[in-house]
């Protein structure tokens, strides 16, 4: 009870911080930004995400990963959507990112109804928001008014994204640089409650020593054995497994329950339970889905406000894969 009270207190205080944070980003980033210029914008984006998810249940997880990888490099400006030599998409850390076609589909529809009005950056943020709701998560209002960036360089990717093998200190350093707190780190890691991962991104988790014992003692042995069965040694780059082995298509708090029984797929997941500074957050979110959902809304709002371009910055692209120039 004491821990829950502490988190609730932090959550409520963070709520004020979130709205202050968003307001301080720019006066032009606001709720209902398209109310006059394109009143059906959010409806059209939601329809596209819903339709795409119906055809491919993996879409919500892909869109969540897409928004993370976009916002952490150059800010939430759709720089990840730009195609070409040496762009962010060409970095090995982004080659398995998906969901681009959903964003482009929504953009094509919006260009028919409201040409030159809705940015690809806003589409990414809104599509990820809708993906969470479609997968069973909370309904989240987020401000809009982002503009699209014009710079996308592969060398900017690695210094700014979290690798699955990162330690707590390494993750905190990157999150802090984006204006995101330790609590945001734990909450946003909950995105791993949906989606899949390639075997080569976590192969170290089930390696054995010469005696046949797991080298990584922080992962449940039966879970490691199951991963070994799912990941053929010669084909790890193409085979995927569900990040959440229990409810992989549902946005819920199962991710945190998995951590408590040492079934976090990545090292970057397991450290949340093993570190004294984050263990209590994990335990409370595992025991209270409503608390996780409330916290998710606040942290997601902060995530999608990182480094936004507004006003006269950037542009509104005609297509998301290329700048207008």
Protein topology:
Blueprint: H1 2-25, H2 41-55, H3 59-71, H4 100-113, H5 120-134, H6 168-177, H7 182-189, E1 196-198, H8 221-230, E2 240-242, H9 254-260, H10 267-274, H11 279-287, H12 289-303
Antiparallel strand pairs: 1-2
Helix pairs in contact: 1-12, 2-4, 2-5, 3-5, 4-5, 7-12, 9-11, 11-12
Would you give an account of this structure?
Helices cover 46% and strands 2% of the residues. The protein is mainly alpha-helical. The protein has a domain at 8-187 and 286-303: Peroxidase, domain 1 (Orthogonal Bundle). The protein is globular, with a radius of gyration of 19 Å. The termini are far apart. Residues 8-27 have low confidence and may be disordered.
Distance between the termini: 57 Å
- The stretches of 5 or more residues where confidence is low (pLDDT under 50) are 8-27
Please give the order of strands in the largest beta sheet. Answer: 1-2
State the shape.
globular
CATH topology of the domain at 8-187 and 286-303: Peroxidase, domain 1
- Helix content class: 40-55%
Major pleated sheet:
2 strands, antiparallel
Count helical runs: 12
Radius of gyration: 19 Å
Look at the structure and give the CATH class of the domain at 8-187 and 286-303. Answer: Mainly Alpha
User: Structural class, please?
Assistant: mainly alpha
Please provide the ordered H/E string of secondary-structure elements: HHHHHHHEHEHHHH
Proportion of residues in β-strands: under 5%
Average pLDDT reading? 90
Architecture of the domain at 8-187 and 286-303, according to CATH?
Orthogonal Bundle
Please report the total strand number as a whole number: 2
């Amino acid at each position: 009870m004491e821990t829950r009270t502490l988190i609730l207190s932090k959550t409520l205080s963070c709520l004020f911080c979130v709205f202050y944070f968003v307001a301080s980003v720019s006066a032009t980033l606001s709720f209902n930004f398209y109310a006059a210029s394109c009143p059906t914008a959010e409806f059209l984006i939601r329809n596209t995400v819903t339709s795409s998810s119906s055809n491919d249940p993996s879409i919500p997880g892909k869109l969540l990963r897409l928004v993370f990888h976009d916002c952490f490099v150059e800010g939430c400006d759709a720089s990840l959507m730009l195609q070409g030599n040496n762009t962010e998409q060409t970095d090995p850390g982004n080659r398995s990112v998906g969901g681009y076609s959903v964003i482009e589909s929504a953009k094509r529809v919006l260009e028919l109804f409201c040409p030159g009005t809705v940015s690809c950056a806003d589409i990414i943020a809104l599509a990820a928001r809708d993906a969470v709701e479609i997968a069973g998560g909370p309904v989240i209002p987020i401000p809009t008014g982002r503009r699209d960036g014009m710079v996308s360089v592969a060398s900017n990717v690695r210094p700014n994204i979290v690798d699955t093998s990162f330690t707590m200190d390494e993750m905190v350093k990157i999150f802090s640089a984006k204006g995101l707190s330790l609590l945001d780190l734990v909450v946003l890691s909950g995105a791993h409650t949906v989606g899949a991962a390639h075997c080569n991104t976590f192969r170290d988790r089930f390696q054995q020593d010469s005696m046949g014992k797991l080298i990584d003692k922080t992962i449940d042995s039966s879970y490691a054995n199951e991963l070994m069965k799912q990941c053929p040694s010669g084909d790890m780059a193409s085979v995927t497994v569900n990040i959440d082995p229990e409810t992989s298509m549902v946005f819920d708090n199962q991710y945190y329950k998995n951590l408590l029984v040492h079934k976090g797929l990545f090292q970057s997941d397991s450290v949340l339970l093993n570190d004294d500074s984050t263990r209590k957050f994990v335990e409370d979110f595992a025991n209270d889905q409503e608390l996780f959902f409330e916290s998710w809304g606040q942290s997601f709002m902060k995530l999608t406000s990182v480094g936004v371009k507004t006003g006269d910055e950037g542009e509104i692209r005609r297509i998301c894969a290329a700048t207008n120039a």
